[in-house]
Specification:
Blueprint: H1 37-44, H2 54-64, H3 74-81, H4 85-106
Length: about 110
């Protein structure tokens, strides 16, 4: 094996990964797909959304598509919540602030 570990060639020991030892040779890795980040967030802190009222929760989840919901445009959320665009933005800001505050105080 050459003195330098880079670049590695197929004839070098440790090809294709220099840090893989003999215990990993021949092991097949399974691709499990993309992780569900929403699920991971809720498992880490199931109370992150407890301080939100119903309108804030609806706005946050629908705007960002959390919890498996579809992303809803702001104009549609305004009609659904019977509010103006400014009021909807304020709801979203309040929801994000509450979640952020909860996460920073519990971290």
């Amino acid at each position: 094996m050459p003195n330098s570990t880079f670049p590695l060639f197929p004839s070098d020991d440790g090809w294709p990964y220099p840090d893989s030892g003999p215990e990993l040779r021949g092991v097949e890795f399974v691709d499990v797909g993309e992780p569900d980040l929403d699920e991971m967030d809720l498992r880490c802190d199931p109370h992150a959304y407890d301080t939100l009222d119903d309108r804030e929760r609806t706005m946050l989840f629908a705007h960002f598509g959390l919890g498996g919901t579809l992303v809803v445009p702001m104009s549609e959320l305004c009609r659904e919540l019977h509010c103006t665009h400014d009021e909807a933005s304020a709801l979203l800001d309040a929801a994000v602030d509450k979640v952020r505050r909860h996460l920073t105080t519990t971290a």
